[in-house]
From TrEMBL:
Keywords: Kinase, Phosphoprotein, Transferase. It is an enzyme of class 2 (transferase). It catalyses: ATP + protein L-histidine = ADP + protein N-phospho-L-histidine. Its EC number is 2.7.13.3. Residues 1-118 form the Response regulatory domain. It comes from Dyadobacter fanqingshengii. It comes from the Bacteria. It holds the Pfam family HisKA. This is histidine kinase. One of its GO terms (molecular function) is phosphorelay sensor kinase activity. The modification 4-aspartylphosphate is found at D50. Coiled coil: none annotated.
Length: 531
């Protein structure tokens, strides 16, 4: 904007018209005092100032403007119709004007000068803006450098206080700073310590340096005092700023004692492993011998029992028909020998579970169909009802899993309520995880089988006892058994990488829950992975 200052409006008007025709915005003041007020409020690119004005003349206004920080660089063109002498022109320049024109003014010359000074003013303003921007950037960079220097000082203080050898490396790969511990391994702060010929890590480090990747390795470095090579963990990480690496920070951590201890431990583990393999082989041989011994012993023990039972029956039938008391004693003897025979058979079955066997896909529906035919007589006598859902095909040891179902169904029939037909329900679902209350999932890897009855049940506070060998919750005289059946089931389920549990309440029946993997190899793989 152009400011025209003249005490006569008739002089202002033609100048405004000329400038506005050439797209200049104009403003006017009719006194020096009014001009100063407007200059304080507004910014002007050129001021056209009449010299002779009442009150403050043009020279006084120019001198006042030169004291303003905002407008001191604004170009002033003086106009005068009277003061044409050299001393007035000189005063005009000395008071802050950049040109002095006498009236009458040639409009073309005035317009040319205004255009020139306006352009110079705009360039000057642009230059100031650039200078301010540059100064701001300089200040920002200076502040950043000061912060960086402070951080570097802090980093060096931290590295100096570390118990490890610590150092920094520039982006060019040259060492910038090392702490005091460095000189235990190298005499020169710019040269890496000497490494063992078999542990030359420098080539790998240079590859990581080029690719900007964190570097971690173990190497043996030579100690200057002892001239011995010791194991160190070497770790060098990049320090990033705005996504670019600005330097690297590294440490050498002494792990020699740990490494020696690990090697000693590995050696001991290797020796122990060999010993265990030998012992395991011996145990397998001994176990096989025990299996053979158990079979022979059970056979030899059952043979006398069979004779006891046979001769007891003969004595009772031939010689004691008229003696009820003697028959009662013999019946007890026959019952005890029968119970001992069952106990020997169950113990033999329990011992056989340690023998290795191979898993194979088993149709549980066919297995149960065949098994239930063994219970036809007792089911008929007790009017038992079996409700059987469709069961999946899973990996099992058929003979052993058959024994689990046999024991559970036998117990359900045995521990039925007096005068109430047993109802046994066998159902299954596919679940995601190996625990009793896992959610149903068609994509799961486990099968949950529930065998439920309406028998006498048991108090759940004894849950931990029922799967322990020889543990009984019921009177031997009321319910026959050896207390081994559920222990056998538990051992078989463990061998199948499964779970057996139960839910019950006295006189409210019982639920026995089996969790079995669908595919054994998959479960074994997961177990190995977890270990």
């Amino acid at each position: 904007m152009i400011l025209i200052v003249d005490d006569r409006p008739e002089n202002i008007l033609p100048l405004k018209k000329i400038l506005e025709l050439h797209n200049f915005q104009t403003d006017s003041a009719e006194s020096g005092e009014e001009a100063l007020k407007k200059i304080l409020k507004n910014s002007y690119s050129v001021i056209i100032m009449d010299v002779q004005m009442p009150g403050m003349d043009g020279f006084e206004v120019a001198e006042a403007i030169s004291g303003f920080g905002k407008a001191k660089d604004t170009p002033i063109i003086f106009l005068s119709a009277v003061n044409k002498e050299k001393r007035f022109i000189t005063k005009g320049y000395s008071s802050g004007g950049i040109d002095y024109l006498t009236k009458p003014v040639d409009p073309d010359i005035l317009l040319l000068k205004v255009k020139t000074f306006n352009k110079l003013f705009e360039q000057q303003q642009e230059l100031k803006t650039i200078q301010h921007s540059l100064q701001y950037e300089i200040d920002i960079r200076k502040k950043a450098q000061e912060e960086l220097a402070g951080r570097m000082q802090e980093l060096r203080f931290i590295l100096e206080s570390l118990p490890q050898v610590a150092f920094t490396i520039g982006v060019d790969g040259k060492i910038e700073f090392v702490n005091e511990h460095w000189f235990q391994l190298s005499e020169d702060a710019t040269i890496f310590p000497e490494s063992h010929p078999e542990d030359d890590f420098y080539n790998n480090w240079e590859t990581h340096l080029k690719n900007g990747l964190e570097f971690t390795t173990e190497a043996r470095l030579k100690h200057l005092d002892t001239q011995e090579y010791k194991y160190f963990l070497i770790k060098i990480i990049p320090i990033l700023q705005n996504g670019s690496t600005i330097r690297w920070v590294g440490t050498f951590t002494d792990i020699h004692q740990q490494k020696m201890a690990n090697e000693l431990l590995e050696h001991k583990v290797e020796l122990r492993t060999r010993e265990l393999l030998v012992k395991n082989s011996e145990l397998e041989t001994t176990n096989h011998e025990l299996q053979q011994f158990a079979w022979v012993v059970s056979h030899d023990l059952k043979e006398p029992l069979r004779k006891i039972q046979t001769f007891s029956h003969l004595i009772k039938d031939k010689y004691l028909k008229e003696n009820p008391e003697a028959i009662s004693y013999l019946n007890r003897s026959i019952s005890s020998s029968a119970r001992m025979s069952r106990l020997i058979s169950d113990l033999l079955d329990y011992s056989r579970l340690s023998v290795k066997a191979h898993f194979q896909p088993t149709d549980l529906n066919l297995l149960l169909e065949d098994l239930l035919s063994d219970f036809d007589e007792i089911m008929l006598s007790k009017k038992a009802v079996i409700q059987l859902d469709k069961l999946p095909i899973i990996d099992t040891i058929p003979s052993q899993i058959r024994q689990v179902f046999q024991n559970l169904i036998s117990n359900a029939l045995k521990f039925s309520k007096e005068g109430m037909p047993p109802v046994i329900t066998i159902s299954s679902t596919i679940i995601a995880e190996k625990f009793v209350d896992a959610e149903v999932s068609e994509e799961g890897h486990f099968c949950r089988i529930v065998i439920e009855d309406n028998g006498i049940g048991f108090d759940e506070k004894f849950l931990d006892r029922i799967f322990v060998i020889f543990q009984r919750l019921n009177n031997l005289n009321t319910y026959e058994g050896t207390g081994i059946g559920l222990a056998i089931a538990k051992k078989i389920m463990d061998k199948h990488n499964g779970i057996i549990s139960a839910r019950s309440a006295e006189n409210h029946g019982a639920q026995f829950i089996l969790i079995l993997p669908l595919v054994q190899e998959q479960v074994l793989t997961e177990i190995r992975t977890e270990n």
